[in-house]
Amino acid sequence: MNDPVFEARINAIGGQKDGAAIMAEAPISIFYDDTAFRGSSLIYTTNRDCAYPPDLWDFSASYVGNDWNDRIASFRTYRFCRVTLFEHRDFLGLGLTWTTPWERQIGVMHDEVSSIAWG
User: Fold this and answer.
1) Which of 12, 46, 48, 68 is the most exposed, fewest CB within 10 Å of its CB?
2) What's the per-residue H, E or C state across the chain?
3) Burial (CB count within 10 angstroms: exposed 0-12, middle 13-18, buried 19+), residue 40
4) d(CA 29, CA 3)
């Protein structure tokens, strides 16, 4: 799915309205088990944007779970977050960070991801 209007709406959820932050649960990232953002999906949600300038990590998943371990092939990210994918659980092994948002094929991390951090 490549819908710029949908993606803009998700990113706007954490924005400001009349001086007050909107605190709504919305996707932070959607991970897919196939390239080109196809196949089954794993969705992580949060009720706020990532900080800017980025903190070390605003959110993290120390393990993606047995069903998704070494299965992620592509992802989309939202809410102004950079994403770091790790080869092993607990943020160990090779870690690669994507700082430009939205859509990514993950190259050498294809079917190697066990933990994730957002910042």
Assistant:
1) 12
2) CCCHHHHHHHHHCCCEECCEECCCCEEEEEEEEEHHHEEEEEEEEECCCCCCCCCCCCEEECCCCCCCCCCCCEEEECCCCCEEEEEEHHHEEEEEEECCCEEEECHHHCCCCCEEEEC
3) exposed
4) 15
Dihedral pair phi/psi, residue 102, rounded to 5°? 95, -90
The model's pLDDT over 62-104, given as tens digits with 9 standing for 90+, comes to 999 999 999 999 999 888 888 999 999 999 999 999 876 556 6
Stated length of the chain: 119
Among 8, 4, 11, 37, which Cα is nearest to 106's?
37
Structure tokens at 67: 């069903």
| Radius of gyration from C-alpha coordinates of the chain | 14
**CA–centroid distance for 115 within its chain:** 11
Q: What is the pTM of this model?
A: 0.79
